[in-house]
Write a structure and sequence with these properties.
Elements: E1 11-16, H1 36-47, E2 53-56, H2 72-81, E3 87-92, H3 99-112, E4 117-121, H4 127-131, H5 140-159, E5 163-166, E6 171-175, E7 192-195, H6 199-208, E8 211-214, H7 219-235, E9 241-247, E10 249-250, H8 254-266, H9 270-285, H10 299-303, E11 314-315, H11 317-329, E12 334-338, H12 342-373
Parallel strand pairs: 1-2, 1-12, 2-3, 3-4, 4-7, 7-8, 8-9, 9-12, 10-11
Antiparallel strand pairs: 5-6
Helix pairs in contact: 1-12, 2-3, 3-5, 5-6, 6-7, 11-12
Length: about 375
């Protein structure tokens, strides 16, 4: 199998902790906070340590250790206005948003931030968030069909006037949005991300989004997805980039990193993890081929609720840098990192890990140029 496209340099993003409880469902100490002041400082630290993107999570109902949440689009705009270069991605759910309304919000956020706003379309896994709000719950592939229309409507409204769209889920009639988002030659409109693991998610990622987000995966798992996503993109004459989730435990020694992982799992909040498991595994298993998110996740995987341990970014700076470089060679364009102690670990990553990644990339580029010249 070939993934065909390899970036010169891999890009880094981090999960915004705008949801309480941290990124692992464990009673281990997590030096993080969901409040605004903490997150402003964290965003500024991240952009000064080599991170180009931040992803604001979206949860609507208190549950599974995430009792408090800041809404993703408003929180993203707040972080954009507190930073200079960082691009902030707001996660949103079709079915709870009307795409033209989000397009209006996105255009304003993009204008106010100088073109740094982006959207991650989440097709939905938490049934209670829909039914408790009186919204219909669609089965898996229908949710992704709705997301496909949602992505198309956003793109059209951000780039065209007098928009008409007649789909099964959305009807837009002669609609013009002004001002539109900032447009440049290399960035025509806010970037659109599509998450998921299933074949329906891969199809949407290839056909309609700029980026495809994968849950945590090992080398074989992410390569399979990249091949599928880029094949879908080629069918319609497009290109798509790929982001991979990974929980990063970088320590001075491998033993320290492995001991930290062991403690996280040993101190897992078992009722919360099992509650999350029961809510999400129906999502993956509801697909015909059982390829959806969390379909084969173990208890240990779900302690980090986006399978972040599976990516294997656990060890010394040298080990992690080599593994990140190996993912890049397989076609990964972005690593979306989660951390136990966000502030200090993002600083550690920027100081210890990222320079090693750049050294490996520069060495590989030099070797490639040498081979070309032979």
């Amino acid at each position: 199998m070939t993934t065909e496209s390899v970036s010169d340099e891999i890009t880094f993003a981090y999960w915004v902790p705008n949801v309480s409880g941290g990124l692992v469902t464990s009673d281990i100490e997590q030096r993080t906070s969901w409040d605004y002041d903490y997150n402003v400082k964290l965003a500024q630290t991240a952009e000064n340590n080599g991170f180009e993107y931040a992803l604001s999570q979206v949860r609507y109902e208190a549950s599974y250790g995430a009792e408090f949440q800041h809404e993703s689009t408003s929180f993203s705009l707040a972080l954009l206005l507190a930073t200079q270069r960082l691009k902030v991605i707001a996660a949103v759910h079709p079915g709870l948003w009307q795409p033209a309304v989000l397009a209006k919000l996105g255009a304003t956020a993009d204008q106010l931030s100088g073109g740094r706003f982006a959207v991650n379309v989440v097709s939905g896994w938490f049934k209670d968030e829909f039914t408790h709000l009186g919204e219909p719950w669609l089965e898996h592939d229908e949710r992704y069909r709705r997301s496909a229309e949602f992505l198309q409507v956003l793109r059209k409204i951000w780039t065209e006037d007098d928009v008409d769209f007649r789909g099964d889920f959305y009807r837009i009639h002669d609609f013009t949005l002004k001002p539109k988002p900032l447009n440049t030659v290399d960035r025509p409109n806010p970037e659109l991300f599509q998450g998921g693991n299933s074949l329906a998610a891969r199809r949407n990622g290839g056909r309609y989004s700029d980026w495809y987000f994968s849950n945590g995966k090992d080398f074989d798992g992410v390569t399979e997805q990249i091949v599928d996503v880029r094949a879908s993109a080629r069918e319609v004459g497009r290109e798509v980039k790929v982001g991979l989730n990974g929980f990063i435990i970088a320590r001075d020694t491998e033993k320290e990193a492995r001991d930290t992982l062991r403690e996280i799992v040993e101190k897992a909040n078992k009722p919360a993890v099992e509650g999350f498991r029961s809510a999400v595994q129906q999502a993956g298993n509801s697909t015909a081929d059982k390829t959806g998110m969390w379909a084969d996740s173990t208890f240990e995987d779900l302690v980090q609720y986006n399978d972040g341990f599976r990516t294997g970014l656990i060890g010394t700076p040298e080990q992690i840098a080599e593994r990140i470089a190996a993912y890049r060679k397989r076609g990964v364009d972005l690593i979306l990192g989660g951390f136990l102690h966000f502030q200090e670990e993002i600083e550690y990553f920027g100081e210890k890990v990222l320079p090693l990644v750049r050294e490996i990339e520069a060495s590989e580029r030099s070797a490639d140029h040498t081979l070309v010249g032979v």
